[in-house]
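Thread: Newbie trying to understand structure tokens

Hi all, I'm a second-year student working on a class project, and my supervisor (Dr. K.) asked me to get a predicted structure for one chain before our next meeting. I've only ever worked with sequences, so writing a 3D structure as a token string is new to me. If someone could post the tokens and maybe explain what I'm looking at, I'd be very grateful. Here's the chain:
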Amino acid sequence: MARLVDTRRLTGRNFLLPVPGAAAEVAFDAAQDANEGDAARCDALEAAIRARVATVVASVEASVGAPLGIDASTMVFRRYDGGLSMAIAAPVDALLTAADMLEVAVGDVVGTEVDPLVRDGLPATAAKERCPQLLALVVEAARRRVATVVDEEGLSIGLGCRGQTWVLTGLPAIDDVPWASLGRIPVAMVTGTNGKTTTTRLLAAILTASGGVVGATSTDGVVIGGVVVDEGDWSGPGGARRVVRDDRVELAVLETARGGLLRRGLAFEGYEVGVITNIAADHLGEYGVSDLGAMARVKCLVGHGVRAGGAVVLNADDPWLMEQAPLMTAAVVLVGRSRSATIDAHLASGGATAWWVEDSDGVATIVRGQGTAPAVAVVAVVDVPITFGGAAAYNVDNAVAAAAAAAAMGIDDDTIRQGLMAFQPSAAQSAGRSNVLVHEGITVVVDFAHNPAAIEALWGLVRHLRTSSTGKLIVCVGAPGDRLDHELHAFADAIAVANPDAVICRDLPDYLRGRLPGEVPALLSHRLVERGRDAAQVSLAVDDLDGLERALALAASGDVVVFTPLVDTAGVFGRLRAAGFSVD
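---
Reply by user tm_fold:
Sure, no problem. This is what the structure looks like when written as tokens:
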């Protein structure tokens, strides 16, 4: 048996298609498998869906009396263990129509009940959404190589201070568009499994040092000109659109999360720089993306959206990204923790650029190299506060990536140096990322680390902080409920590596995501005991603040507390401030 579980609009280039369209997901019963099961059954299912989509499209076009630009022959299918993804290309004035068509057609084929309002409303939806003037403006903008951003709120031509937005019911004639004043601004999109928020913040600091008005999005909010204009997770397409539609913005840095890429695709294309920090095990399983190779292809959408003449910054130490590097059409800039054989080969390929860390007169230094020319020293690692003198190696990586991205956006070395040196690992500038607070001899490390790779990387900083102390290590962690059991076990294993004296496993009430209250903390605590922690060393908490209270109650002078905020970062800092810690 198969069932329809999801349909959605794809507003830009996406994992399934290089253009906008709509997608649907079909799940199979546990006994069925799209890869190892009956291939003929899957072939027949795909053929039946394609044929039914063609019939539905023809029926709606007959009712509307005009072609919609949706062709069943453009359908693509992706089989994976337990399900089937599919997508169909559609013009930007027919995305909702295409999604509803898929819901009707796929539902009919697999026997999933379809809402009668959706089925009966297809002709009206198509007629209401259809907008030939929108398509004409998008085509003309593309001819002029001007970026466009389209959603239900309107059409934007150009970006930031060089853009203008019209509501869809008030679109101008092509000749009435002020084309001479519309165009690009320097924009970078940043993605990856770990480090994307910090890299985004570092890059925004560098761009701010250049003197421009910077717009930035991240999992923590939208910032325009250094002012937070909206809090919350804005790392999806909605946040990107909000920034590039602000006419104050002269440069932009857009954190781009996996979820938005899978659900909607890229917010727009034609930006200056794409940055992909790394690929690690996290968020696997959704939409059939269950391995690191597939996740790398999802993240690298950010590279494929870069304009001709732009650059893609890739981590040379990540094998998954190096597999994708030859597929990029924009220039590739490699970054690494050292000058590796991969970077050597890249530089030797003819004029290519790379950034890495090397010893310069006994000092670890971020350097820039191009082709066979001698490397140019840009900034000493010890002068970049967020690296803690190199102890936070993961932030060395983030600083190198931010520097490379800034240079690709036209920023000079002196400004890059100033931006990196000015950025502090404080709650004010980098809330929830590598914040180290001390009060009455107790050191609290607040960091977003939420997967095995991030936790393991954090231990380097923790070891540095504990070098002159024999105090206890107290760790308080939580994890969203949509992680698979084996992912949660790997997370607990990474915690156990540090040999903590006490671990508090807390629930995330707002992120149960199908789990029962207390289920995730129980899985983590049981695994920690299996990995050698005494049961008395492991306890449970109901949420962030409860976990923090328990951790502080256990701490004494000389101890280090590691707290990983995932939900209530502001509340955590408020509680620490009340306890006497200097947060700002």
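A couple of things are worth pointing out once you decode it. The CA atoms of residues 104 and 116 lie 9 Å apart. The domain at 435-578 is CATH 3.90.190.20 (Protein-Tyrosine Phosphatase; Chain A). Feel free to ask follow-ups in this thread.
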